[in-house]
Amino acid sequence: MRKLQFITAVLVSMAMLAACGTPATPVAPAAPVVVTTVVTAPAPAAPEGPSEIAVIVKTGNSSFWQNVQTGASAAGTELKAQTPKLTVTFLGAQSESNVNEEINIVESAIDRGVKAIVLAPSDVTALQPAVKKAKDASIPVIIIDSKLNGDPSQYTAFLATDNKAAGEACAKAMIDLLTKAGKTEGKIQVMSYVAGVGSEVGRVGGFTDYIKANSKFTLLPTQYSNSDMPTALNQTTNVLAANPDIVGIFGANEPTAVGMGRAIAQAKLGGKIVAIGFDGNSALAGFVKDGTLQAIAVQSSYNMGYLGVKTAYDAAMGKTVQAYVDTGFLMVTKDNIDSQEAKNVLY
């Protein structure tokens, strides 16, 4: 009996020791799981760009302005890759002397809400109110070819030939050619286009001022053709008949120079007087090649249209643009007319 009690006591003691043994290592509680939600803001939508850029020129009835249109269309095609809805419209008056028609075209563009205007103003003063109206409507205006009088802050940029420099270059070429022919005195006739147009003021002013300051030649009263070729032809025919002793003649823009060239050819005076024209269509290039004209000053009309639209697009997008861009000119003669440089500007 005592033996059984002893065994039972031993078993109870062992159980108690097991219960009071070394405690198990406590398990650290799991770290809380933090869930972070990252919200990505949508990227701002790219500006759509302007829907219409209106190119408005003095007249559509001239290959010079049609070459401006070619450049404008090329720029529009490139910009469509960025702005598929972009349209570049092109309008001009029936003639350069129809100033009111051009004003109406500009005001119509403003009323239909175009995003930018590229404008070749046919009058340096009369277009000012229309340009101010565009500015008041927050429509940037890029002036090409002829600078407006008045406050330049009314428009965004001006792209053109340096007409004063071009006129001076034509006068210098005439003096040089006449001097080579042994002539230092005699009559020179200027055949101009529309009196008071910005390009005319600089171009003809540059020519006449240079002649007066650097020679003894006599300038006859300037003739104005209103940029009408038949008028220029008739005027030149009359000038040549009334002044058989004339030594030089300058045609200050494309239709005027073409009319002048035809009158010289009809009078069989090609090469007998020094004749210099302005602009570079195929008719004028032909007159240079056959000796009717000794030189033509050729503007880059393509650049006026191309850079005009590009500048208008940037301005409509709120970008800063250059206030003035010289689109350049080249004196083309029989010596360089077949060069690549001349081919780049002739049209």
Helix run count:
11
- The CATH architecture classification of the largest domain is 3-Layer(aba) Sandwich
- Ends distance: 136 Å
Please identify the structural class as seen in this structure. Answer: alpha/beta
* Model regions low in confidence, pLDDT < 50 over at least 5 residues: 1-39
CATH top level label of the largest domain: Alpha Beta
Q: How confident overall, as mean pLDDT?
A: 90
The largest pleated sheet is described as:
7 strands, mixed
The count of domains is: 2
Secondary structure tally: strands = 13
The portion of residues assigned to helices is: 40-55%
Radius of gyration: 39 Å
Strand content: 15-25%
Describe this structure in words.
The protein is α/β, with parallel strands linked by helices and 347 residues long. It folds into 2 domains: 52-161 and 301-328, Rossmann fold, CATH 3.40.50.2300; 163-299, Rossmann fold (3-Layer(aba) Sandwich). The protein is built from 11 helices and 13 strands. Strands 6, 7, 8, 9, 10, 11 and 13 form a 7-stranded mixed sheet that branches. Strands 2-1-3-4-5-12 form a 6-stranded parallel sheet, with helices on both faces. Helix 7 packs across helix 8 (254-266). The longest helix has 18 residues, at 2-19.
